[in-house]
Amino acid sequence: MSPDYYQDLLQRYLDGTCSAQEGEELFAWLASDAGRKPLLEALQREYKGQEEPHPAGAAGDRIWARLEQSTRARRPLRMYWTAAAAAVLVMGVGAYTWNRYERRPRPTVPKEPIAVQDVGPGGNKATLTLGDGRTIVLDRAAEGQLTRQGGAGVVKTGAGQLAYTALGTGSALYNTISTPRGGQYQVVLADGTHVWLNASSSLRFPTTFTGKERRVVLTGEGYFEVAPRAGQPFRVTAGDMTVDVLGTHFDVMAYADEDRTATTLLEGSVRVSGGSTGSLVRPGQAALLDAGTHQLQVGLADLEGAVAWKNGYFRFDGVDLPVVMRQLSRWYDVDVVYQGHKEKTYEFVGTVARSANLSSVLKVLEINGVQVKVEGKKLLVTP
């Protein structure tokens, strides 16, 4: 079974809705790995011998307190899925169900508002810049046709989605869709290509594709599902990297504050060029272009991690603290300020929903010795 299955099982156990057989299955899974021992012991202490379960929120707080105590006693500098499964599992459940628990009516415990110093997650926010320089704030625009641009109709099809439809007349114009920090958006281009934009990203594209190639320019990060079109290859320029495709699914990460540009291929085939070299990339591989040396390397990819943002969650697989904080900065629209020295080395592993408030995400850092404080739009970090 996948971790998601046991996260759901734990949620229902805390809520008192799982069957006795499911409870036994959950405890057997927790007992099967030594790294899950803190969570298993905490659950046993909370519920053993009690006929009625505690409210989910109260139980979660007590379990968290005991997890923090046991974890801090070890003072780990590296958080593995196996060695800290309890912390990550609770974090996953908390991120997935925290708001749900808070919204559920309780007879004796009033609903608590989001803390003043907490930060809510990002959402569907973007600005469309038209060929004549006019702008449309998409998250404020009503659904339906927004305008007509150079032979294409521009339609907002739903929350967080924009679509271009070729009308067959008029010359192509260039439009740009831009997401701010804390924003994401989807756009379907006139050829049927579907693009997801991550936070703090932009895509410049023609309203219709009439030349020998379909060329777009990306900053930040985007996931592409390219519509095949024989004789008209699709080309993405992202900084110093160029990706040539015929029809495929891939992710391009080209943030200016990262030390490399990455193209990760899920389906099809692409040719990636960077610096003075180029290479074919096959499904399951990633092409990495070093920002300093401009060297291009191709190797096996973490496919799930590359598209986690598109699927609605953060996935950390052995990444260090600055990588985590840059992702949080973009999605929660906060500025990260480091305090004190940064000699410690951390490697974080885990999965957290992007729908969680920032305070929920920070618990994973805090139980591993990273002190974090939110002050307005600043995130003060003491490694």
From TrEMBL:
Domain of life: Bacteria
Keywords: Membrane, Transmembrane, Transmembrane helix
GO molecular function: sigma factor antagonist activity
InterPro entries: FecR, FecR_C, Ferrdict_sens_TM
Domain Protein FecR C-terminal per the UniProt entry, residue ranges: 313-380
Matches recorded under Pfam families: FecR (PF04773), FecR_C (PF16344)
Parts of the chain that traverse the membrane: 79-98
Residue ranges constituting the FecR protein domain according to the UniProt record: 176-271
Protein name per its UniProtKB record: FecR family protein
Upper classification of the organism: Bacteria, Pseudomonadati, Bacteroidota, Chitinophagia, Chitinophagales
